[in-house]
Fold each of these.
Amino acid sequence: MTSDQSKVVDGTCRAAWSAWGSLADAGTRAGVLEALAAGLDEIREEVLRVASEESALTPAELAPEFARMTGTLRQFAAVAREGSWIGAMIDHASPEPVGAFGGVVGPAHDVRRVLVPLGPVSVFGASNFPLAYGACGGDTASALAAGCPVIVKEHPAHPRTGRLIVGAAREALRGAGHSEDLIALVENADPRDLSPATALVGHPMVRAVGFTGSQRAGLEIARLARERAEPIPAYCEMGSCNPVVVTREAAVARGEAIGRQVAESILLRHGQQCTCPGLLILPPGCGAVVEALAARLAAADPRAMLAPWVRDGYLHRLAECRKARGVETVVYGREGSGQRQAGTCLLRVGAADFAAQPVLHEEVFGPSVLVVELGGMSELRTLPLRGALVGSLYGGVADEGWDLARNRLASMCGRVVFEGVPTGVRVAGAMVHGGPFPATNRPESTACGPMALARWCRPVCLQNAPKEALPAELRDGSWHGTRVVDGRVVPGAG
Amino acid sequence: MTSDQSKVVDGTCRAAWSAWGSLADAGTRAGVLEALAAGLDEIREEVLRVASEESALTPAELAPEFARMTGTLRQFAAVAREGSWIGAMIDHASPEPVGAFGGVVGPAHDVRRVLVPLGPVSVFGASNFPLAYGACGGDTASALAAGCPVIVKEHPAHPRTGRLIVGAAREALRGAGHSEDLIALVENADPRDLSPATALVGHPMVRAVGFTGSQRAGLEIARLARERAEPIPAYCEMGSCNPVVVTREAAVARGEAIGRQVAESILLRHGQQCTCPGLLILPPGCGAVVEALAARLAAADPRAMLAPWVRDGYLHRLAECRKARGVETVVYGREGSGQRQAGTCLLRVGAADFAAQPVLHEEVFGPSVLVVELGGMSELRTLPLRGALVGSLYGGVADEGWDLARNRLASMCGRVVFEGVPTGVRVAGAMVHGGPFPATNRPESTACGPMALARWCRPVCLQNAPKEALPAELRDGSWHGTRVVDGRVVPGAG
């Protein structure tokens, strides 16, 4: 990084820090998010065109993603305005037992707790969702809703898309009377240049990081964040080898339909979704599933992937896995022409060979799946499965091994899908888009849904504070959001 | 560690893992906690005697701490039974906008979220609270309430106390028909022997760590937890240099009373509390505060500290600080006789010398305080203050610099106390006993109060699950705890 580039990063972070105070009010946060959504709506066609050119995703794929981006911005505006997210709790001073939990333990001070924003957040968006997890995606929306300005680290796979979005966002903010420095972008067009990332994560005015990408990059970002003089949290979503389990009974009854469903899930965005099925785990007697899946994958055309290095990484991982002991290549689709094109792949291995070879336990980012053949469902108990974002279970509750599969998936996934594919994430309060390591480094969090803003806050307790020192949500009397007062939930009016 | 000791650790962890399933039911969790509290009540006198012998804390200091320990166990029993802590959320499948946040973003699957326990937790208790933050203290209570068995790492400062408590706890569990392996202790009588800590944090069946102690040990525990093949969370409370700010107006009006209050706060447990005032930050004109504080500290007798190495650490840090440029020793109390005795200390330094010397920014664990003299309250803006558990502010809202002090303290502390001393932690929902680094490594958490159990859980989302796959709190129909259904809070009956 040249000293000029360093100055740009520093100036950007300082501007975000200065703008921070303007987000103190919840109404302002909501207004900012709504202004962004409206501003982006105005350039929808241009965004779709540029994003499609850069990502090789089709307009049909990007149009719903655009709606998801603006829908998420508006949802977080509603969350900010509704106000309960701030987690207000009041325990009045009382020498008597109060609330649901009986007994005062310790001195009966008046204590009041609320979430406060950490400060400017640096967002490292995803390659595979240039809109919904890009410059104005879920991390940006949740950070702004929590009261944190955002500094986007440009993604080298779609620099024009990011610049277009952030430019429009800043213009929309100016137009609505907000500080444009509530969102900014630091350029990083060269994927080999790591200095913008290093400078951002190390800057004292960056107070948290949201990252979506590879495990290697995520672990490095987390390390940089941790080794600062003052460590900051880095929430890293790092890829996932999502398992799909099918019971024998389900396979016998509707194996072909299941195989087709899984195939379509894999083919969405040519396998380039964090929720793409990675493992298909089958007891004996599931041939119909594999046949239908193989037929559909074999018939799929090769497609351009998100970036040349994504294609290279995919082919490299495929080659590694195909060389592993006991792995049979069932489908290896045409690679196509062009620097970014690649085809589908279906591999098959027995449970023992799978268990013994860690190279098979890691994500293959692309349109491939590894079928793991069990000797029986009980082998699920010890099969080495690593933490994943999501797992699917096809089968009925009375099927052999269904309970075991349900419990095993719940123990290692952030989300368990029943009778459905892992792709397709609803943005809702109950959503968990996260999961045990190595899917993320913070399994207690979600990157999707209103709870995502908790990542950008910490609680503060004010003890025996004069009324003037209390924010609105901690004052006695009515407040529009839900809060907990003396151990009892007091629902808001909103 | 000998291979025999390794086997003991391994056996203990395996037994905890096996016992884990017995905590699935909330009523069982509550029963376990109540059995522990009742069992400890039966050996109260013996616990007080042994803990006093080991820690040199007085029975008058330990009696309320005993009540805090059993009160916390019973409070967490109530929390477990009440049930809302599990954070249940339900979003029904609906093609229509539902709930408070309008608009369905993404596919409208039925999604339901709940917290699940991580598994066995290893608790590294505090030297300074052998009961309330010892073997059956807040970390143990919150872990059991969350559904996690506990493996206590013995504290070398009070091994007999820990063995007595865990022995009684296991007997109480047996007596009440629970598995005794829900709590166990790994011995570590020699403070130089780090192998029990290493073995516990590295054991695959330990799924989280709660640590209270020094920064050096805490960072090492966190590193070990992170560098496992499968990283686990380590929640480390690592000491804190807690600031007390007094406005000139408050000092003029009631400086002597404030000085006496701060002195008594320091003298509690001879300065060996994590919430002990460490810095007294004063604008010009606060002489009365310092005079009263100095008089009380100078009159205090030396006392035995918690352990010889605690005394040595205290004297070492005092010597470092007294050598720093511009530091004046106002009080240096008699050291006393005996290997563990030490006296009080009051040091004074100007803001510029303080700012320039990092040796002054770290905790001195013991009965000492550093007065930092400001040229004016505005110097608070840039004074280098590190993350702390708690800060205090004496003064009225109209006083010069009061707003600045309030905001500065809120930006760097987990808790801000108004017109009072930082010692004295209420165990309540709104309590935050935590704070920015280096006070803790997880400022989003609290080690005290019902919210402490969130540390031992992660959320799981079940999508389109059949009723049979849902725990009680996620089924449609009535449930006794509060939950969020389609974006609206539904208060429980409890």
Note: Chain B has a mean pLDDT of 95.
Amino acid sequence: MPHMADAPHLYEQLAADIAGAITRGALRAGERLPSVRRLSEQRGVSVATVLTAYLALENQGLIETRPKSGHFVRVRRASALLGPTEPRSRAGAPARVTVGTGVAALLAAMRDPAIVPLGAATLSPELLPIAALNRMMAAICKEMSTAGASYDAPPGLPTLRRQLARRAVTWGAELGEADFITTVGAMEALHIALRATTRPGDAIAVESPTYFGVLQLIEEMGLRAIEIPVHPVSGLDLDALDEALRTQRPRAILCVPNLHNPLATVMSDDAKQRLWRLGQRHDVPIIEDDIHGDLMHDGTRPRPLKAFDRDGRVLLCGSVSKTLAPGYRVGWLAAGRYQDAAERLKFSQSVATPTLPQMAVAEFLASGGYDRHLRRLRRQLSAQVARMREAVAHSFPPGTRVSAPAGGFVLWLELPAGCDALAIQARALEHGVAVAPGPIFSARGRFGSCLRLSCGFPWSPRLQAAVDTLGALAAAEAGRIGPGGRSRPGAAN
Amino acid sequence: MPHMADAPHLYEQLAADIAGAITRGALRAGERLPSVRRLSEQRGVSVATVLTAYLALENQGLIETRPKSGHFVRVRRASALLGPTEPRSRAGAPARVTVGTGVAALLAAMRDPAIVPLGAATLSPELLPIAALNRMMAAICKEMSTAGASYDAPPGLPTLRRQLARRAVTWGAELGEADFITTVGAMEALHIALRATTRPGDAIAVESPTYFGVLQLIEEMGLRAIEIPVHPVSGLDLDALDEALRTQRPRAILCVPNLHNPLATVMSDDAKQRLWRLGQRHDVPIIEDDIHGDLMHDGTRPRPLKAFDRDGRVLLCGSVSKTLAPGYRVGWLAAGRYQDAAERLKFSQSVATPTLPQMAVAEFLASGGYDRHLRRLRRQLSAQVARMREAVAHSFPPGTRVSAPAGGFVLWLELPAGCDALAIQARALEHGVAVAPGPIFSARGRFGSCLRLSCGFPWSPRLQAAVDTLGALAAAEAGRIGPGGRSRPGAAN
């Protein structure tokens, strides 16, 4: 049995809980934390555990120790932690998509290890159980001397599909082994789902903002995007979607109900129910990207939209790229009534998914190590996101708004109206810092004064310096506009 | 250093040489082979080696021993080994493509190990050095504990691209590391190449017949196919292509200059030169599928069209799926002037190629084991193809024509005019035998009386029985048509 990631230390759990409370606002800036003795009694842990947790939080910059007074939540600039503004509640007309330039800069930065990685949403390798996974892979390669000698033709490796069906139970979705097709990551699944449901020239409804990779794909497929606003708390604006379905007749809906990228919103079960009904009423398929569904900071697992699907119109796309091993490229598609078409498309697109990575991931899922790893990863991401929010609050100019993610590892920033995010991206790159500028998250170049920051790496002086740099660049932009600068409500949309 | 495939035995080399001579017709049916002693002297090998080679050839059914007389090339039916007919030398009008049904049956058969695999062009695992490759992979997984933890963003793994550049020298093509993008097999490379050069609705020139997977891809991409005939000896009909370029203005050309699938033709260097000039004159990109280029039975390595490319209009696609490990899904694209667009498409299509399989293939190529393996594989395929031709000659009805492949591992059969290949495919499946029917190799359902047989597995009684079955089904079809059946020259086109 390969060695698995260790169970978390008690102090880590405690520190993560407190970090979460700070992020949620349950503990406010300047508030005094319980004394070490009292917390030790409350939680039934040793004094040493509490002290170690407080030390960890202090190192993360979330709390501070005042001599003779105790521990306090660090004071943040009062202005800094406003939530993102609400969107105008209407969909835009279909737009041809062009997000190329900002994306190209982001990808170039991704390949350069000298650049601080706040741009692409990637995780630090040290957060992933990749060593354990690679050991499983090594054992499989040794034992299965002919594995990889044949095409693992669609729908893909049965043992992996069995594990996915098993996990689907924990999602609250009834999916069997035969409902899955394995793919080269979630992007191939999304590509196949779009090919199965649309034709070039079709309009499809997407969230606004949304992941730039999806917009790039839409652009390259000759599709047009109808942008549906995302509310910073409740997620996809269903009234706006309803209107778009009635007036613009998109051929499909593509959305991220769980931990939306970049806003990290999670739609309620009621909203998912309504979303599915909208699809049904207008007879439109819904492509669901669920890659962050396992990353809620509080350890819950929101149901995918697919769990509410009564007639096979939801095409669920997922992968282990945000939780286990991006470089393994193991993803899946549960395409409902489009399953046969999707299998054919998978075959002509890449014939088969690589066999050995599927085998290793299947074994990892079967081992139980995945849930243990997820518990640890969620805590770490929670702390990293909280730390990044703190740093943003300290370094960015007044009036900056920032999302309060319930999961995942990206932050969405709205800078004071008029700040040019693309200019900041370019200047930040000159300083060796990558960041994702708002306009690449929109087919119409909206979100001109927004930034997405990835929080995939443990806090470090290097990250602190990078955020300071970004804050200074943003402040310079805000200064350029002037303190009385144009106040345009909704300018970020 | 992992263990590599052994060098070939002398007798294997000798048997392969003789099998090749029989296939080429240099040794004819009924002809007497040199005496054991004489051949032993001629080749400078032991008598035992010659005896073992003759025994191997006898077991393969290629020669027979006549007591007191010596060894003879087995007598074949005089009628059976005609080459395929020449095509009408004109391109067809562009056609929407629909090859779905025959392909679906083929894929279903591919997943069922109980079915004799004469359909899909797959190799027996025992012919592949997969155990050695898997051992390399195991070592990499152990040593590189964080490999796979990051996306290997396009253009893909530098060590693999370096090895590809090194091999390109042996192809006679000047390609550097930066000229390659790694892909999920050659099909992803072809898909990206088509996306980079065409838009839905465009017409593209393809060979007729051609690989059904490409036709399926063209169909799903909303492209139209202009079918250019392939001459059974010289390959792509360049006069017909020239005419199509002038009159039908295809947006791209997709072809297999080396070991065409299914005809196994190899274009001469002069023809490749002319093909490139045609592309240049009409300013059309040429997508080259070179997946069989390493599989010439005589050990030569024909130059890819890319070697004649002076202005970056050739997009070379290749993989190790036909030589090393189909299930590793490691391929590549050298996209010339379309390189930037291809990198972007690769990113939005599947983000990255899986890291570890690339690492293992790179190490295998660097080890020198690949060339050693290829020498052995070519001999084995040569013998398997020769054996299959023999069996076809014995089992199929008079008037059957069969290709004489210089490499690779597929045979192309033209049954007597009027025989229904799709009906034969369906009936063969009932008997547990998969075969690829001619019409799936054409966008217009041509080649209605043709079959492609895969020779990827070592000869066995099971294969013999399968060919007997196919021959009987073909004979029944021919009988249905009647002995004086319609003689339609060119019906196979």
Note: Chain B touches chain A through 65 residues (CB under 8 Å).
